[in-house]
Amino acid sequence: MSDTTVRARGLLPSLSPAEQRVARVIIEEAATASRLTITDLAERAGSSETTVIRFCRALGFNGYSQLRLTLAGEAGRSDPDDPVVGSDIGEGDDLAQVVRKIAFADARAVEETAAQIDIAVLEQVVGLVAGARRVDIYGVGASAFVATDFQQKLFRIGRIAYAWSDTHLALTSAALLDERDVAFGISHTGTTSDTIDAFAEAGRRGARTVALTNFPKSPITRVADLVLTTAARETTFRSGAMASRLAQLTVIDCVFVGVAQRTYQATRTALEVTYSAITDRRRG
């Protein structure tokens, strides 16, 4: 999937219904969309030329000509002979095809997430986490696994961190934070109220807030100081599935390694001590 279609997919929930129809044509027919005139695209999407222009500007383009040229360039770098690209799992797929499509989707989620990370924002997040008194991490459902992974990573290098998936505990914890702390809210859709409520409470108490979501204009971003995004595409049978978690874990790893670099000697010592503490728990 191209950079443009990744951005279009991320903006989908924030677009109007008419703009969403334009976006879906771009996402689903990226290889051929660059050959459509603005009138053709509007007709294909059941929309208007004015709506196409609004969609272009939402993506950051000056107009349709710029979008069309970008799509054409990205189409030239793709592999048109790969039937897996952009395909969903169908009822008639055999198990070998299912395995190939899942592997492709998961690998692509990691690649596209890494490609679209805003390094300047990542630098700010690393600085906040490295200097925080403590880090509270909120996530429920599939995102709770990612929150726990992040907490464990930070804990291993001597950082005080807590992962909360219970709403009452999360809200209680958030109420005790202040300007010395950092709150992380993890939500693939960016619409999970349990996560948003605790996250917003942390911000009201003065904590710096960092959101991790697949959708850069989702509700959780409205109460975040900083936003990190993923680029995972969920498919049939795969809502909240591995691709989104792998994408989230990719970003979390980038934050963690950045923090570890900034506290290199302390991190080395903490890793050695914690590894030694559990060595005799492994059986050879």
TrEMBL record:
This is RpiR family transcriptional regulator. Residues 2-78 form the HTH rpiR-type domain. Keywords: DNA-binding, Transcription, Transcription regulation. PANTHER family: GLUCOKINASE, HTH-TYPE TRANSCRIPTIONAL REGULATOR HEXR-RELATED. InterPro entries: Homeodomain-like_sf, HTH_RpiR, RpiR-like, RpiR-like_SIS, SIS_dom, SIS_dom_sf, WH-like_DNA-bd_sf. It comes from Actinoplanes palleronii. Transmembrane segments: none annotated. Pfam families: HTH_6, SIS. Residues 125-265 form the SIS domain.
